[in-house]
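The following record pairs a protein chain with its ligand, iron/sulfur cluster.
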Amino acid sequence: MNQDITKKIKQLAKEKNAIILAHNYEPPEIQDIADLCGDSLELSIKASQTNADIIVFCGVRFMAETAAILSPDKTILLPNPDAGCPMADMVSPEDLKAKIALNPSIPVVTYVNSTAAVKALTTICCTSANVVRVAASIEQNEMLMVPDRNLAAYAASKTDKLIHKWNGYCPYHDALTPAQVEKQRQAHPDALFMAHPECRMDVLKMADRVASTSGMLRIAKESEKTSFIVGTEVGLLYPLKKANPDKTFYPASRAMQCVDMKKITLADVVASLENNTGQVRVPEEIRVPALASVERMIRL
Ligand code: 13P
Ligand code: SF4
């Protein structure tokens, strides 16, 4: 059954000159049919460089919107339009405008996990892979970072600059506690503990390595260690195991399951390719200023 549907997807993608991009948290069967899997930064870069006419984005809405910001002449499809990111919805353009009005000259660094309308108010975007580099690139000694308070705290721990934090967070990463990590460490004392910078600072302080999802994939491949405790969404365990069949991966907590990242099915991908459903568009008055902040990040 999956074989038939996979064949159909490949055929449709070829006929329509479509590329399929998938985030590292997507379900295994979606990652397996993708032309490229990656973290937010890799997927944004790929979306800016492809010659395909259609980008099928298997991830969440902000990722498809970023592709639409970068490629206005391409058709961007999000096969399940309900796939969102609760953290991205924790900052509205109205609230951000009000905050900026209190200090109009402050640079705003916005995590890509945000809406296009928020990116449009932004100096430069960042991802979990480049947040420290982006913060260092800001000329001023002070900045506002939205929407993730944990990512902002992590960046602040790596620079002397003053970083004002927005009070947003990822409900899954923020819920990971030091006690849960400690329990896994005691159960697997030889394992290397990797944590995503969306985790809280008390968890990040326990980490052997802090990295984006693709950063974790690289660490696991290069490390001499044979076992790892994975402090991020459990979907990453699939590509980790696929690339390292002889190594062992333990989730820091099985509760780290992003509902939105599991919404896209193979049937959704077929329907989307057949009928161009789930098209994501960004109005020009938002896209143009948002593009400046995304391009600044990609150029860095
Ligand atoms: P990465 O960019 O590290 O893949 O993270 C995206 C994300 O949504 C993490 O929750
Ligand atoms: Fe958003 Fe968290 Fe899901 Fe990533 S894991 S898409 S930050 S809710």
